[in-house]
Amino acid sequence: MGGVLIGFAIIGFVILVGWLLARSGIVSQEGRLVLNRTSFFAASPALLFTVLAASDVRLLFSSVLAVTLLAFVAVALVYIVVARLWLTKDTSRLALAAAASGYSNVNNIGLPVAIYVIGDASFVGPMLLLQLLVIAPVLLATLDILTAGRASFVGILTQPLRNPMLIASALGAIVAALDVQLPAPVLAPLEILGGAAVPLMLLAFGVSLAGERPLQPGTGRREVWLSVVLKNAVMPVIAFALAKLVFGMSDQLVYACTVMAALPSAQNMYQYALRYDRATVITRDIVLLTTALSLPVMLIVAWLLKPA
Fold this sequence. Notes:
By secondary structure, the protein is mostly helical. It is 76% helix and 0% strand.
């Protein structure tokens, strides 16, 4: 348990530094975009490639992937049913908030958590592949149909091919599957670049927390809280039940699946909302609140489930 606390302390400290940099005016919200883009297009792909290239490729297509998918579908369906009956009839709003209830921040928070809390960054691979290859295209197709009356299926299907993190993950998985031993001159620069990924992500996240206040009156606060409860509380419980009771996983895999399910909602949801100009305030608030609550939730999960 001491190692887990140290891991959370490391993550929290770097996030705090980012927040202080923003509050003191040293780094602006525009500067956060530079940190995010540097991590997204360079450092994180390098880290994912080196990690997955040396990982057990069976993990990428194991029951871990099934737990992730089933947990997402469960919370999304619960959100749609409850929100449709009592909160809103807006289908675009329903689609975005339902997706935000289960679509996890694998990039900015998932990687640091996998490294420092679980101790194995390869657990990010299944979630990343599922979200970018399956969930995101389905959501984008749905939003295209709802907002424009038709979907640009070629653009939606090729969108993952323009994501550097997915490309790097796929290449790393191929290297692992073929059991290719890469020479040191190839790995060394990628390892150096990948070493910058986690600090950049956490600093950028800390800067983002110094932005606007959530839950302003008249912004769909009940919808936000429904999504927050599903993401921070219900999804980890579902993932635990699936991993433990349905798939009979080992204690380490149950712990990993539950921790990863407790990740906050991904910032992609806010970006998609901006792109389609639908539910932007609601998705922003969901991302902010699930992020603020995720660390204590994951700490509780680690306290209860961390294998000895």
